[in-house]
Amino acid sequence: MSDLPSEADLAEMTGAAPPAADVVLCECVARDGLQHESAIIPAAAKIALIERIADIGFRRIEISSFSHPKHVPQFADAEAVLKGVRRRPGVLFKATCPNPQAVERARAAQDGGWGPEEISLLVSASEGHTQKNLRRSRVEQWANVAAMAALGRDRFTMVGTISVAFDCPFDGPIAPQRVLEDAERFAALGVTRIALGDTIGSATPPRVRDLIGWLHGALPTATFIAHFHDSRGTGIANTLAAIEAGLTHADCALGGTGGHPARIAYGEGFTGNTCTEDLVLALEAMGYRTGLDLVALRAAGEAVEALLGRTLYSKSLRMG
Amino acid sequence: MSDLPSEADLAEMTGAAPPAADVVLCECVARDGLQHESAIIPAAAKIALIERIADIGFRRIEISSFSHPKHVPQFADAEAVLKGVRRRPGVLFKATCPNPQAVERARAAQDGGWGPEEISLLVSASEGHTQKNLRRSRVEQWANVAAMAALGRDRFTMVGTISVAFDCPFDGPIAPQRVLEDAERFAALGVTRIALGDTIGSATPPRVRDLIGWLHGALPTATFIAHFHDSRGTGIANTLAAIEAGLTHADCALGGTGGHPARIAYGEGFTGNTCTEDLVLALEAMGYRTGLDLVALRAAGEAVEALLGRTLYSKSLRMG
Questions:
Q1: Of A84, A298, B203, B311, which is most buried with the most CB atoms under 10 A?
Q2: What is the rounded CA–CA span in Å between residue B120 and residue B143?
Q3: Taking CB atoms and an 8 Å limit, are A270 and B315 in contact across chains?
Q4: From CA B36, how far away is CA B74, in angstroms rounded?
Q5: Chain B partners within 8 Å of A266 (Cβ)
C-alpha cells in the first residue's frame, strides 16, 4: 500500500525503458505473422497493432520487411508503417532485409529519422533450402549478406537469422557444426545477434540443448535468439528448452501466426511461430520475468484474432 | 530385402504382443476425449474408433467409464462398448470407476469375459478440488477409493489418478510432498500405477522434473504416468519433460480432445489432453520407440476429426 510509484509508473513518468526482464521476447506478428496472410492489412491497422504491442512492454518488435513489393505485397507499406509508429525509449523495431537495396531503404528511413533500430539478414544452413527459398547458392547468399552487412554496419543492430538450423526439408538433418560455422561467419561480418530458425518445426528439446551447448561454448560473445515454429506442436517445448539452456532472447508471434506457405514445399504449409500468449504464461510460471503486461497481452491476442477474422492458435486465450 | 517376417508381422501371425516400446502411451480419446462432448457418440462408432486405436499399436487404451448414466450419459453404453471390442494379446483396456458400484460393474463385465484389464480410481490432491469436483471431502474420497480398491484388488490392474497434482484452481499450488503422500496411500491400497494429473494445465517443465524427482526417490516401486492437459499450450513440453525425467508412461488423446467443461469453474473450460499425434512425432524424433504405426496414427487423427465434425488441436495434422 505504498504511495511510491511502481517501476512501470516510473518508466511512464520518466520516459525510461520498460521494466527489467530476464527473457527478452521479440514479437513477430506484424512481419512473420502477416507475411503470408492473403488479405493485405492496411498500414493504419498495422501501426495500431504495433503500438498495442509496444504498450504491452515488448522491447523488440518485428515491424515490417523491406522486401520488393512485387514479391511481398503485404509489406509494400514498410515506409508508411515505420513512419507511423511512435518511438519509445528502450524499444527496438526490427525490419527484414533480403538484399542490399533493402538495406539502402532502411538507411534512407534512418536518415529520415524513422528508421528501424534492427535489421535482419537471412541465410539457410543447407544448400537445398537456400536454392529453393532464396533461389541462389549458399556462396551467393553469403556474398549477398556480406554486402548487406557492409551497408548496415555501424548504422543498425544487425540480426543474422540461420534458417533450417535443425533440419532441412530437402537436405535432411543439419549438424550443429554447420550452424556454428554460419554463426561464426555472421560474427566476422559484425553480426552478433543470431537467430536460430527451426523453420520446419522439427527440433526437439534435447537437440535444442545440444546445439546451444555447441554455440555457447564456441561463440560466447554472440547473443543467440530462439526462433521456433510450431508445425509439430513443439514450439513451446523447444523455446522453453532454449531458455533453460541459457538463451535470454526468443522470437514469438501473437496467436501463433506466421510461417511459410505450401508452395515452398514444406508439406501443406502450416508452420506458425511459437505462440506469444502461451509462451509468456509458461515463462512467467517458471519464474522468468518477461516485463510484459499480461492483461494487455491477452487483449492483444484477441485483437489479432479480430484483425485476421479467425480463431488463431493460442491455447490460453481459449481457457478464459 | 530379407524374406523373414517383420516384428509386426510376427506379432500378427503369432497373436503376440505389439512391438517393443520405450514409452507406453495410453490413448484416452474414447473416454477423457469424449466425456464432455455434447453429442452422444453411438457405441458402434466408439467400438470402431477403439479398434482403430488398437490397430495403431497402442497397448493401453482408455475405453469407457462406469459412471452413472444419469451423470455421464456419454458412457451409458460402457458395457456395450466393452463387449464389442475385440481382445488382443498385450493390449490393456482401462475403464474409469468413480465409486464401488462402478467396480461392481467392472467385475460383472469381467465375470462375463469382456471386462476391462485396468480400472482407474481418482483422488484430488486438494480439498477444494475434491469438494467441487467430487462433492465430498478428501477423507470421504479416500474411504471411497479404499472401498473400490478392495473390490478391484486381485481382479484388475488398478491405476490411481491424482488430480490437480500441480495446482488447484481453488486452493492454489500443491506441494510435491502432498502428491507423494497420496501416491503412498494408493500404494498401500495395492495401486502402484499412479497417474499425475495436471488438471488445469498449469505445470511447467522444471516443476515436472521436481515432482518426479520426489516421487521416484521416495516410491521407486511405483509406475508413474504423466497425464497433462494443454490448457496453456504446454502439454507437449510437460509430457516430454516427464519422459526425459524418467517416466515410461504417459496419457494423451487424439486431436488433443477432452478436459473439463466450464461449469466446474476452471475458467472457460478448454483443457484438452496432450495431443497424441504431435506427442508421438516428438517422442520418435527424440529416439524413443512408441511402437506405433505413424501412418495409421495420422489416419486415426483424421477419423476423430470426422467423427466429431470439427478441426481439433493437432498441429502436425495440419502440416500435411
A1: B203
A2: 15
A3: yes
A4: 8
A5: 319
Entry field: residues in chain B = 320
The answer to whether residues B211 and B198 touch, using CB atoms and an 8 Å cutoff, is: no
- For residue range B142-187, what is the model confidence (pLDDT) as tens digits? 999 999 999 999 999 999 999 999 999 999 999 999 999 999 999 9
Instruction: Please write down the long-range contacts of A67-71, taking CB distance under 8 Å and 24 or more positions apart.
Output: A67/A96, A67/A98, A67/A102, A68/A98, A68/A101
Residues of chain A with C-beta less than 8 angstroms from the C-beta of B268 = 318-320
Three cell numbers, residue A297: 497481452
Cβ <8 Å between B282 and A201:
no
Helices (H), A195-315: 205-218, 235-244, 276-285, 294-308
The predicted structure's pLDDT at residue B62: 98
Overall average pLDDT of the B131-152 stretch: 96
From the list B220, B237, B310, B242, the residue with the least C-alpha distance to B278 is B237
* ipTM of the shown complex: 0.90
What's residue A16's pLDDT?
54
Contacts of A314 in chain B (CB under 8 A): 233
Q: In terms of DSSP bridges, do strands B157-163 and A223-228 run parallel, antiparallel, or are they unpaired?
A: unpaired
Length of chain A: 320
- Of A295, A259, A261, A258, nearest to A280 by C-alpha is A295
Reading the block at residue B249, the C-alpha cell is: 508412461
Helix or strand holding residue A314 (H, E):
none
Which of A242-251, A261-270, A277-286, B35-44 bottoms out in mean pLDDT, i.e. has the lowest? Answer: A261-270
- Contact of B154 with chain A, judged by CB distance below 8 Å, is answered with no
Q: What are the residue ranges of helices labelled H in B286-319?
A: 294-308, 316-319
Question: In angstroms, rounded to a whole number, what is the distance separating the alpha carbons of residues B220 and A280?
Answer: 35
Where are the alpha helices (H) located in B160-253, listed in sequence order?
176-188, 205-218, 235-244
Closest CA to A247 of A23, A26, A18: A23
For the entire predicted model, the pTM comes to: 0.92
C-alpha cell at B304: 476423430
The rounded percent of chain B whose pLDDT value lies above 70 is 90
Instruction: Flag the least confident range among A5-19, A50-64, B192-206.
Output: A5-19
In our burial notation (b when 16+ CB lie closer than 10 A, e otherwise), range B52-81 reads bbbebbbbbbbbbbbbeeeebebbebbbeb
Q: How far is A279 from chain B (nearest CA, A)?
A: 8
Cβ pair B106, B152 in contact under 8 A: yes
Relative orientation angle of helices A138-152 and A100-111, to the nearest 10 degrees: 10
B55-114: pLDDT as tens digits: 999 999 999 999 999 999 999 999 999 999 999 999 999 999 999 999 999 999 999 999
Q: Which tens digits make up the pLDDT trace of B236-262?
A: 999 999 999 999 999 999 999 996 654
Domains and CATH numbers, chain B: 19-318 (3.20.20.70)
Q: How confident is the model at residue A9 (pLDDT cuts 50, 70, 90)?
A: low
